[in-house]
User: What shape does this take?
Amino acid sequence: MPRLPIFDRRNGPPLVTAVVALFCGAWLIGGFTYVYPHPVIGWLPIPVSAVLAGHACWTASRQADLDAETRRFWRHLAVACCFFLAGIVSNINDATGGPAPSQEIGMITLAGYLGTLGTAMWALLRLPSWQRSRGDWIRFGLDSGIVLLTVGAVVWNLTLRNHEQWVSQTGGAGAMLVIMAVAGLSMATFIKVAFAGAGRLDRRAIHILATGAALGGVLGVVSLLLAGRPYLSSALIAVPVAALAIHLSAVSQQRAGNREPRPRSGRPRISVVPYLAVAITDTMLLTTGSGDPATTRTMETVAVALTALVVVRQIIALRENHGLLTTVDGHLNQLRDYQDRLTHQATHDSLTDAGNRTLFEEHTSRLLAAGATFHVALLDLDDFKAVNDRLGHRIGDRLIQETSRRLTATLGAGALVTRLGGDEFALVLPGLPGHQDFAALVAAVGRPADLDGNILTPGASIGVTGVQPGDDPAELLRRADVAMYAAKAAGGQRWQRFDPRMDRAADDTARLAADLRGALAGEQFFVLYQPIVSLPDGVTTGAEVLLRWQHPERGLVPPDVFIPVAERTGVIHELGAWVFEQACRQSADWSARFGAGAPGRISVNVSARQLADPDFVDAVAATLRATGADTDHLLLEVTETAVLNAETAIDQLNRLKALGLRIALDDFGTGHSSLSLLLTCPVDVLKVDKSFVSGASAEDAGAIIVKNIIGFTTDFGIDAVAEGVETRDQAERLHAAGYRLAQGYLFGRPMSAEAFEATFQTAAVAA
Assistant: This one.
């Protein structure tokens, strides 16, 4: 709400007080040209102004919304107005109560005025002060001394220097005492407000009080001009002005209410005071320099003392400014350090302190803008998820940190190493690095690492691309990513340079993925059965169910082409569930039609993503209930990689075993931890990989492995199935080694359900 003007026509009492002041001023001026026969007329309105001022102070003290300290101040000021009224009435009696008009000031008048000033000063000093530091109080003392010395010089120059005239004119030293007291009040008010604060008191009100006190003191000096005019007195103007100031300040407080005062500025608010004090003193020195030598010496002493105080204050100010500048410089340095840390955090990886994607994009953008020649390599650790699952994320983080350290040490300062996330790093290599540089990266990352007692031999797949016209950071990463996946598809632990044909292959894979999503609904999939036979007679005992895709345009798509795509896109969940349902229905049908002559085991492959699905076991149970298949005739095949890559794989396999299903570990002997898996994985059957049976090493090392595998499977009570048997000689050697089950082209290629049914029907008839 905006503040109302003090001299609003609705504020009747302030206008009356102002009119009294104007009347008294006009009366005083008129007395210089006219001798008043009844001087009491000029005095009569003055008590009215004191009464109105006191009433305004009392009204302000009763405002309920003001704080206790502010209300107390205005109560004290109302009491001061009572002393003021008493002093005025006594002053009227002194001036007009005798046989002749007089300028004398009696003791009662003096007591009234001094009581007014003393009460006002007491009220002012009781106001709350600001909290100040040691430096603040030093400046406060110096500034107070400057103000005190200056006011003292002014009072001395105007009053004490002419004390004989004052005494002879007023009949005593009372007038001088009052003027000095008024000057003291002005000084105290000024110092209190400027240096020590005034609580929640309205600042405008306190400024009006200070101005009124100062004007009252200055107007009191008018008495020196009234010698020879006893019917006039400086009180005729000084007193109404002081009453008006008190009245206006009280009204200002009433208008302001309990509004929060403006906060104290952090800058020195009266920094001009020292210079103003010196200017006033110098002016008095110049104007009195040709007079009495004692007066001149006094003013010179005051000027020197003031100058000394100002110099001391300026020295302190300079020291404080120097300290402030030092502090500001320190804060600026801290701010710069903090900004540098923020910039580093925004552009670097928190785990490895290598750069992050933001830094990669900024760096490559600068190089591209400058037309520089460089290569981008994208590195991904092979089988990193297995490390996290087997050894925990702490060891996984340690491996990432060690990889970052090795990359930085191998590449040196000229290259940039950034971590994009997970186990993926983007490298920026200046110039034209050769084959040996990338081979060195693969070798450096692949060195054995001792991580808290765990000896790991990590592998890395790296995709590399150079700069082409129109490139941006995203395109560079895309091409490097395509090359990196080509390296992984080639077996991993190698590097691969980007070739445009990879893009075509990637596009082809993308189209294949799109076709794959609708192939199941389009009934493009079918299943085949590859026989599993007993040795040495070759009688069919079961079959492995194999999925095939008859694409309407591409024709028959090989499994090693579409199965990885199904894994990446997640379609493998639907395909796996469909294959299992087909196997269950076919097994139930054969059991119903052939009874004991039905195949003893129907094997269904389960992918890593299926095994990692928490709903997988529930879905298997639902399919078994829906088809009525006998779990004794069903076998689920999982690879070692699938077990290792699924964090809850062992729990899932135990739940499947609880359903009555048997578990086969496929491609046994090709992994890194096959033997250790036998201790935790609920395995019923081991399927020995065909590389040991019919591969290049089948005649020497493969034969030794095959022989040793059958030994511990017998000890563990596990069945062993030899895969990839292609010749009778291989079958005979396997039988001689102890194998009783085999699978391969020698005994039959994957075939339809009808063709496979014929094989075990023939066996049943022969029996």
Notes: DSSP finds 29 helices and 16 strands in the chain.
